Amino acid sequence: MQFLTVLSAVTMLVIATLAGFMTAHAYEVSGRRVYVVGPGGTFSALLAAPEAHTEFEVRNLVRQFMQTMYAHDQYTFKQHLDAALPLIDDTDGRRIYAGFKKGQVFENYVHYGARQVLDVDSIVLQLKKRPFMATAYCRQRIFMGDQQSAPTGLAAHFNLIEVDRSEKNPYGLQLTNFDYLPYAPPVSKEEQDFLKSQAAERATKIAALKAAAGATAAPPAPKPAPAE
Fold it and tell me: Cα dist. 71→41, 67, 117, 206 in Å?
């Protein structure tokens, strides 16, 4: 009888140990199908590691933030900010928006019919330890009618902290400690030639307008006095 009691206890210990090992192993392996026993019966599920973020996902987050926060016109300004602000912490988001207000970005869009575009040149990531860190190097251009400005650099360094995934932030990461960096983007020879040609054409148009305005406003030359 004592032997059976000991055997039963050892058997229960082995079962408990195996169950614990299998559960731990299952949670270590993401995407593996496991079977869960509950009050409603047994069902299968695919495990996911919520803390896992791929490099591809993080790059998409950084690119989406930069392109929605810094590229817009009078028609997309609010829509783009509504998409960008959930991706950054409240303090840094308010600071960036305050800069837009101070610079009258929206008012200038309306007054000049301008639009601003942004290209991401490169994104540097550090994902080996938390908090994750990223640096984005971008170039901005402003368009007014058929005129284009020379590209200006926009670079920023920031941390990425984990947050709950949501409809407005499906990445589960949020930018924080956002700081601007100096950056002078390289300009190709083709773009340099285009900008020079554009500047020369603009100067010619301005000179023609000034000449036309001067001819219209100039008083008629006095007639010479008749000889006596």
Answer: 52, 5, 5, 29
Residue at 100: amino acid letter:
F
Task: Kindly tell me the number of DSSP H helices and DSSP E strands found in the chain.
Answer: 6, 8
> 64: burial class by Cβ within 10 Å (0-12, 13-18, 19+)?
middle
What would the pLDDT profile of 156-195 be if each residue is shown by its tens digit? 999 999 999 999 999 999 999 999 999 999 999 999 999 9
pLDDT for residue 21 is more than 80: no
Q: CB-side exposure of 179: number of CA atoms within 13 Å?
A: 7
Is 5 part of a structural domain of the chain?
A: no
Instruction: Reduce the DSSP state of residue 187 to 3 states and report it.
Output: coil
Q: What is the CATH number of the domain that holds 135?
A: 3.10.450.230
Q: For 213-227, what is each residue's pLDDT tens digit?
A: 887 665 665 555 555
CA torsion sign for 78, 83, 84, 89 is positive
The candidate with the shortest Cα–Cα distance to 64, out of 50, 85, 35, is 85
Domains contained in the chain, number: 1
Angstrom distances, CA of residue 224 to CA of 16, 202, 217, 221, 227: 120, 40, 21, 9, 9
Q: What is the pTM of this model?
A: 0.72
Residue 139 lies in a domain: yes
CA dist 132 and 135 (Å) reads 11
Q: For residue 166, is it within any domain?
A: yes
23 located within any domain: no
